[in-house]
Amino acid sequence: MANRILIVDDAAFMRMMIRDILSKNGYEVVGEAQDGSQAIEKFKELRPDLITMDITMPEMDGIAALKEIKKIDANAKVIMCSAMGQQAMVIDAIQAGAKDFIVKPFQSDRVIEAINKTLGV
């Protein structure tokens, strides 16, 4: 069975890029969210195997959403996505429980490597 992934990013273009990379590599995208609060709702509803989470989003950022999701499920697997130059935020995310991070613009081999490593594939 394909691993089920939730994509969280405020930019539709970025969600589309990740969805394409995942689909081509045999992953099932079970949902998408545009901000952290939507991500929490979708996580509760869909219970994905993994979440790709943008750090910088309106309403609720990725780190706040990550902390909330970890309260719901301490074993939730979240990979953070960040633009270049956000190292401090990436460190915060890892400390909050993120399993890995990928940098925008996405390189498909790096995305798949991070996901496979996090899922233990």
TrEMBL record:
It holds the Pfam family Response_reg. This is Chemotaxis protein CheY. The lineage of its organism: Bacteria, Bacillati, Bacillota, Bacilli, Bacillales. Residues 4-119 form the Response regulatory domain. InterPro entries: CheY-like_superfamily (IPR011006), Sig_transdc_resp-reg_receiver (IPR001789), ST_Response_Regulator (IPR052048). It comes from the Bacteria. The modification 4-aspartylphosphate is found at residue 54. GO terms for biological process: phosphorelay signal transduction system. Keywords: Phosphoprotein.
